[in-house]
């Protein structure tokens, strides 16, 4: 029984990491109709900025408020990069899908190369608060605190996103834009400001995922963002393009499936099962769990 509890909670920790990356990705595609392959770069920027800040920023460190300050610096760096990417590289290409894909893929590759040139290709030990290196006993199972931290962070981000989308003016604009961008534009609302805001939110969530992912894995590497982005795209497609709640459901399904199958089967089989789940969803419900079917 303790093994099942441990696998469930560690699987939910992995699900939380996937959701943090996928939530912004889903919003960006739902509103701006952009497949942002550079989203993993925002994660890497957040991770490396947090890692740098913990050792160099005055007042920051690996424990207590110092770590919170380091994470805040990493999130701010992710937001800054995301906004610059939207303003400089994506905004001129909103009506040119192929060019969007080429630019974001190229930016992702260039970002990884830049990180490798700056800090090397090898993983670097990530500064972790003392508490996250321990375990907590849950019904007899020794659960890593780093996974519990991810779960709490993902729940907080989900609640904040839902509150923002439901109760704020820009949140309502984003929801309306996801449903019918042409109608919102016809009403005289400048959706381009909402595009920039959505990129900023996505960059913040991805950078937070990078910082907490560093705590979870214990290290940071230039390619970490790209590997997590693959599963984030799977989560977005399964959950339904543009649906934050759908991404949350899909992240839980993917994380738990991956964790249980990898434990009870052979290593790597969980990844194959995740791809199989994606294929089944695309065949039976192409719009995803919470997505809406296209109307003629």
UniProtKB/TrEMBL annotation:
GO MF annotations in UniProt: transmembrane transporter activity
Record's keyword terms, sorted: Amino-acid transport, Cell membrane, Membrane, Transmembrane, Transmembrane helix, Transport
Protein name per the record: Branched-chain amino acid ABC transporter permease
Listed GO biological process terms: amino acid transport
Protein localization: Cell membrane
Topological relation to the membrane, as annotated: Multi-pass membrane protein
Membrane-traversing stretches: 6-27, 34-53, 65-89, 101-119, 147-165, 194-217, 229-256, 263-284
CC per GO annotation: plasma membrane
Similarity comment: family membership: Belongs to the binding-protein-dependent transport system permease family. LivHM subfamily.
């Amino acid at each position: 029984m303790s093994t099942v509890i441990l696998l469930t909670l560690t699987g939910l920790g992995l699900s939380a990491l996937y959701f943090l990356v996928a939530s912004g990705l889903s919003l960006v595609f739902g509103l701006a109709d952009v497949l942002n392959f550079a989203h993993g770069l925002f994660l890497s920027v957040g991770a490396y900025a947090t890692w740098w800040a913990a050792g160099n920023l005055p007042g920051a460190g690996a424990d207590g408020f110092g770590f919170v300050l380091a994470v805040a610096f990493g999130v701010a760096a992710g937001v800054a990069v995301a906004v610059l990417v939207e303003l400089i590289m994506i905004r001129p290409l909103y009506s040119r899908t192929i060019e969007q894909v080429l630019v974001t893929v190229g930016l992702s590759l260039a970002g990884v190369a830049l990180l490798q040139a700056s800090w090397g290709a090898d993983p670097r030990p990530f500064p972790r608060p003392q508490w996250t290196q321990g375990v907590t006993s849950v019904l007899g199972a020794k659960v890593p605190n780093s996974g519990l931290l991810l779960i709490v962070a993902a729940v907080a981000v989900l609640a904040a996103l839902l509150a923002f989308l439901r109760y704020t003016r820009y949140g309502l604009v984003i929801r309306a834009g996801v449903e019918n961008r042409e109608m919102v534009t016809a009403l005289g609302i400048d959706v381009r400001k909402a595009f920039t805001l959505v990129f900023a939110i996505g960059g913040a969530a991805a950078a937070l995922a990078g910082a907490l992912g560093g705590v979870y894995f214990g290290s940071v590497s230039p390619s970490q963002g790209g590997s997590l982005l693959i599963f984030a795209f799977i989560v977005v497609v399964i959950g339904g393009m543009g649906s934050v709640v759908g991404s949350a459901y899909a992240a839980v399904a993917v994380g738990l499936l991956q964790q249980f199958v990898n434990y009870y089967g052979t290593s790597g089989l969980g990844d194959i099962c995740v791809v199989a789940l994606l294929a089944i969803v695309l065949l039976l419900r192409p719009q995803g769990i919470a997505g809406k079917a296209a109307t003629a």
